[in-house]
Input
Amino acid sequence: MKTDKQFWTTLPKPIIGLAPMDGYSDSAFRRVCKSVNPLIVTITEFTSADGLFHNAERVKKKLQFHTSETPVIAQIFGKNIETFVAATKLCEDMGFSGIDLNMGCPAKNVVQSEHGVALRKNHDLAFALVEAVAKNTSLPVSVKTRLGWCDSSDLIPFALGAQNAGADMICIHARTYTNPYNVPARFEAVYNMKQLLKIPVIGNGGITSIPDGLEKLGNLDGFLIGQATFGNPWVFAATPPQSFSEKIPLILNHARWLIEDKGETRGCYEIRKHLISYVKSLPNAKAFRSKLCHVASITEIETILTEISQQLTTAAQSA
Ligand SMILES: Cc1cc2nc3c(=O)[nH]c(=O)nc-3n(C[C@H](O)[C@H](O)[C@H](O)COP(=O)(O)O)c2cc1C
Output
């Protein structure tokens, strides 16, 4: 999909999207979420700019996407201007609709390498990266970051600096680096920041449904949903399916797409955690989990899902 720097500004509001999540928001899961709601925006798992620079063919595989996912934004992380610019060019050639710079990842190895959220300790480098990427691409450039390190005291100068450097959108995960994921997100500082910015601002953190997102939207331009999509891509649906059997076709597509993309062994291994999430709220989930965590083929997945559905129907009839 051809986009320009106005992409985020001209998208219908509120912008609703799937948060980038390493190990989850791969092409197959993005396709699943897009089939539930074609209007959402999706972002790839974070991908190393250095990796793209040095091992382009191998790392590009992680970034592959299907046309049905568009518009899809490539998220890259790193700290080196040269590799960021080269990675951006690769993403542009691959047909991505935008480039997102990860400045929020708290993973130990990422922070130790002074990537991700560590860039909040080095505003000058963060802005230099945004500027270099923005100047070297016609795609819209965004930044995803957190409230701050241990509080939100530098959020406004950081956001204004990113905007001045050429960012076309900023997304704030409304927790700090030192907040674990289960601490409630706090949006007040994000609303205050938005008042001072010209570019769109997207909020993220702890949003459990579209109504919940709309309630927390305030003056923001949109929101991303992350963990609440695990086992529940229907969080994006206007009318979610009522029964487990109605969910089966999409769950099977998820498995098929993962297997198509990553091969049967890897695909079956990776679908297991999703299958476990798909059944987590069902009665007798424990028994289902123990079967699903060993699946090795699409036929086996289909058989187990059908068995689950039949057991649920029988239990409902005898209740
Ligand atoms: C397993 C996992 C992987 C994540 N990977 C990324 C990532 O690659 N890039 C990124 O910007 N954020 C990543 N995040 C953060 C999410 O995008 C999001 O900001 C965070 O989960 C808060 O949203 P939520 O409360 O709706 O889950 C990840 C989060 C989780 C749970």
The chain has a mean pLDDT of 95.
